[in-house]
Design goal:
4 helices, 252 residues, binds zinc ion, binds the ligand NS(O)(O)c1ccc(OCc2cn(-c3ccccc3)nn2)cc1, Carbonic Anhydrase II, mainly beta, eleven-stranded mixed beta sheet, two-stranded parallel ribbon
Length: 252
């Protein structure tokens, strides 16, 4: 495996991977701090902003038009609106693990991330260099018998993006259909969970998971990390182990 492939080696190319504000972390209810000033968060997404779905060899990603404040997240811990840029998933090689954040010792089967950037900065790449540049809404995937029907739309496209580099049109999709009933959340300051691990993310981690079926998780695991004409390498376990919290507080 290349040096970059293993999380414990990332710091050799990206020293910040050993920083004090890395993600994901373990969230323990006994150690969170109640912040009465925290507001509810709101997402207002334009379904027409959805563009394509792709396999980049690391995850399944849906990208959105973020050329203006078309689909935005605001409220909660955020100082203003943040533009939706992409969503993607993390999952394991079996249903008993795959999430990045861990709650009271519980690993979920997967985790959905909706990545937004702060338009007070001139563009996305400028925002990733700022501590208030990015906001990620994280939603746990829990395996159960009554899966959320809205997940079907994404999983139906998997066959079109089996290998790295494959992309397919993905029009007319409002990702807020994937939200759980409750908007309760934890929030803390952290980083990208893959290189370059920049510490620019305000994490908003929803407490209520969404239900997916074991077959739907298997569908995600049918993706390959290799390109079409290469030997097949299943795209599984694309999650980073939890990182030290150090002196950070998690707020609820
Ligand atoms: N899993 S996660 O939501 O934390 C997450 C992890 C990695 C991501 O990569 C996309 C990316 C990284 N950068 C980047 C480019 C230059 C400098 C710094 C970062 N641009 N796009 C996105 C979300
Ligand atoms: Zn992610």
């Amino acid at each position: 495996m290349s040096v970059c492939a293993r999380p414990d080696q990332w710091h050799k190319n990206y020293p910040i991977a050993k920083g004090r504000h890395q993600s994901p972390i373990e969230i323990n209810n006994k150690e969170v701090h109640y912040d009465r000033s925290l507001l509810p968060w709101f997402a207002s997404y334009d379904p027409c902003a959805a563009k394509t779905i792709l396999n980049n060899g690391k995850t399944c990603r849906v990208v959105f038009d973020d050329s203006f404040d078309r689909s935005v997240l605001r409220g909660g811990p955020l100082p203003g609106v943040y533009r939706l840029r992409q969503l993607h998933f993390h999952w394991g090689s079996s249903d008993d693990h795959g999430s990045e954040h861990v709650v009271n010792g519980v690993r979920y089967a997967g985790e959905l991330h909706l990545l937004h950037w702060n338009p007070k900065y001139s563009n996305y790449l400028d925002a990733v260099r700022r501590t208030d540049g990015i906001a990620v809404l994280a939603i746990f995937l829990q395996v159960g018998k009554t899966p959320k029907p809205e997940m079907k739309r994404i999983l139906e496209e998997i066959n079109a993006i089996k290998t790295k580099g494959k992309e397919a049109p993905f029009p007319n999709f409002d990702p807020s259909v994937l939200f759980p009933k409750s908007h309760d959340y934890w929030t803390y300051h952290g980083s990208f969970t893959t290189p370059p691990c920049e510490e620019c993310i305000t994490w908003i981690v929803l407490r209520e998971p969404i239900i997916v079926s074991s077959d739907q998780m298997a569908k995600l695991r049918s993706l390959s990390k290799n390109a079409e004409n290469e030997p097949d390498l299943p795209l599984v376990d694309n999650w980073r182990p939890t990182q030290p919290r150090y002196f950070r507080m998690v707020f609820v």
